[in-house]
Amino acid sequence: MRDLMSLSERPEIISLAGGFPNTESFPREVFDDVVARMSSDHLASALQYGPTEGLGELREEIVKVMAHEGAVARQADLIVTTGGQQGIDLAVRTFVDPGDVVLAEGPTYPGAVPCFTTYEADVNHVPVDEHGLRTDVLEAALARLAAKGRSAKLLYTIPNFHNPAGVTMSLERRRKVVELAREHDFMILEDNPYGQIRFEGEPLPTLWELDEGAGRAIYISTFSKILAPGLRLGWVAAPAPVLRKMNLGKQAADLNSSTLTQRFVLEYLRAYDWREHVDRLNAIYRSRRDAMVSALQREMPVKTEWNTPSGGLFVWAALPDYIDTSDLLAEATTRHQVAFVPGSAAYLDGQGTNCMRLNFSGSTEETIAEGVRRIGAAVGDMAELYRAFRVDR
Amino acid sequence: MRVAVLKGGGSLERGVSLRSAENVERALEHLGHEVIPMDADDQLVKTLRAEHPDVAFVVLHGKGGEDGTVQELLEILGIPYTGPGVLACQRSWDKVVAKAYFEASQIPTPAAYAFSGDAFRELGAADALSAIHERLGFPLVIKPAKQGSALGIGLAQEPGDLPKLLMSALSYDDRVLIERLVPGRELAVSVLGTDEPWALPVVEAVPVDREFYDFEARYTVGLTDLHAPADIPDAVAEQAAQLALACYRVLGCRGFSRVDMILDKAGDLWVLEVNAIPGMTDTSLLPKAAEASGIGFEEVVSRLVEDATLG
């Protein structure tokens, strides 16, 4: 897959494949000012090694960022990671032995797939609908496992503006997930990179918060979406025994996340209001999402279903079953110069072959409209061919 | 010498090409050549004119690089290049054309029929499928006529499998080949040289827990066991080498190429295809063959540069 995707780097290709946040709108004068603050007051320490769990002052600021979403954490609950991605890796590494059952939404974050396969997890997908993870299916899956004398170690979930599905888990289901975790003794790995990337509506409580300190939830978030992914900074909030293990894992992996970018974020958070920047981003993304949804309405020549996400970076679209989106990608990149992520990348069990993930955060409205038009043309070619194979034609 | 390494490009095998090129560039540098890396984009002719290398080392796989296109440009620019010339590339790239050459020279190749997408769209070719499987029987291999690295290839066990697999193959090329499956061992013979070509040891690809040697199996370490030299009787190895040389001559190859074939249960060999620009990644067959022969990959690269020519 990665090999085929290498074509999407070519300049003539419109790529709706990546998950790129907008970095152009970060104000240059703010960047210059933050760098100046770092170099005048903290140069030596910013260039030095730091504690594995991250700078204490930064963790204090992260507590405030989490509070903005209603999640209560103390500095001691936190570890700074190299992107949210490292949080996933450390959590899976901590809990999963080869063959252990991990439950994950179907579809799930394609970037989590290598974490699951590296540690040889037995991933069982739980489908989503417009209210997020189907907790009825989750409950049935847990019962089936129990009947076989097995249990799940971990539930990996992205409750807000899911990547790639775009959906948000309802409050009722969040409560149910927490209840099931207690009942069936598994850990919740809550990945929340997009919670603040909200265009409409009010935030729902995090699973971390609903767990009420019962020690069943691990919370992961990141500065990638609210500031910039190039910083490679995220964080994990976890119960103390879990945090200790993750700290050891992180020591082995990279000792500490970049002190330079930690200091950058710290100085930024002290001097500026990050929420203003996020507001700016959300205005840009909202307009781009609208452009994508209206382009889909206009351009898709066959019955296609998609959600209109209230936040996040992605639209997930389902085409008719006869279209395999890996084949469509070959056709789309070579003949129509457009790329997307085929749905099968978001599953470990071969599902999702008729689905695709489309990113709207990384392209302008015009590019999105043209990209979706091209995808529509590629879909049209395949649909025409399909008609030629129908016995009842 | 100043050697331009032509790599990447806009084909689906771009990623494979970039990995092949890493190995080629390393070998060239080690041999003392000055390497000029060039990603084949719409500035390629300008870049080649500006740099004017002594030799162009073509490491492009797939459309544009393996089908004679870039070779034609190098001919016009007068830059000697490695590997087969324009016509040999065209003949080997299109499996339908290559098969016609094989059949005309009594080189055994599995029976097949080919259709364009338009035949299905405009002429109702779907209605002819039953006649095809009556003649060829199942299982059938469905593959794009022009595509490398086993992309778009599928195995049909029954009539119901055909539409989906044909649609899949036609996503990679506008013509599709429906070929009788010859079950057996997958062998590859790399051939080197121009005036007096010679074959490297036979390599066998054994996919681990997989139906066949597909794209993933080709480029993922651990998904395929490569046996070099293949564990086959000397007489069969010799026969495979002669067959590969016959293919090489029939298509008019030079420099190097790789011939893929099947050794069936009766001990007969069947040629599937010839790759004009074989993969040179860490998991590829040609480097393994070079290693097994004792000459090593670097020597292959060195000879290719020496053999680079025009016309």
Structure, explained:
The complex is a heterodimer of chains A (393) and B (311). The two termini of chain A are 34 Å apart. Chain A has two domains: 2-19 and 276-388, Aspartate Aminotransferase, domain 1; 28-271, 3-Layer(aba) Sandwich (Aspartate Aminotransferase, domain 2), CATH 3.40.640. With 393 residues, chain A is α/β, with parallel strands linked by helices. Chain A has helices spanning 2-5, 28-41, 43-46, 56-68, 83-95, 113-118, 135-147, 171-184, 207-210, 240-254, 259-271, 274-299, 325-335, 365-389; strands at residues 14-15, 78-81, 101-106, 122-129, 132-133, 152-157, 187-191, 217-222, 234-237, 305-306, 314-318, 338-339, 341-342, 355-359. The longest helix of chain A is centred in the last third of the chain and has 26 residues, at 274-299. In chain A, the strands form three sheets. An eight-stranded mixed beta sheet of chain A has the order 2-9-8-7-6-3-4-5, sandwiched between helices. A four-stranded antiparallel beta sheet of chain A has the order 10-11-14-13, covered by helices on one side. The radius of gyration of chain A is 21 Å and the shape is globular. Chain A has 14 helices and 14 strands. Chain B has 311 residues and is α+β, with helices and mostly antiparallel strands. Chain B folds into three domains: 2-83, Rossmann fold (3-Layer(aba) Sandwich); 91-108 and 183-307, 2-Layer Sandwich (D-amino Acid Aminotransferase, Chain A, domain 1), CATH 3.30.470; 112-180, ATP-grasp fold, A domain (Dna Ligase, domain 1), CATH 3.30.1490.20. In chain B, 39% of the residues lie in helices and 23% in strands. Chain B has twelve helices and 13 strands. In chain B, a hairpin with a 4-residue loop joins strand 12 and strand 13. In chain B, helix 1 crosses helix 12 (296-307), helix 4 crosses helix 5 and helix 11 (285-293) crosses helix 12. The two termini of chain B are 20 Å apart.
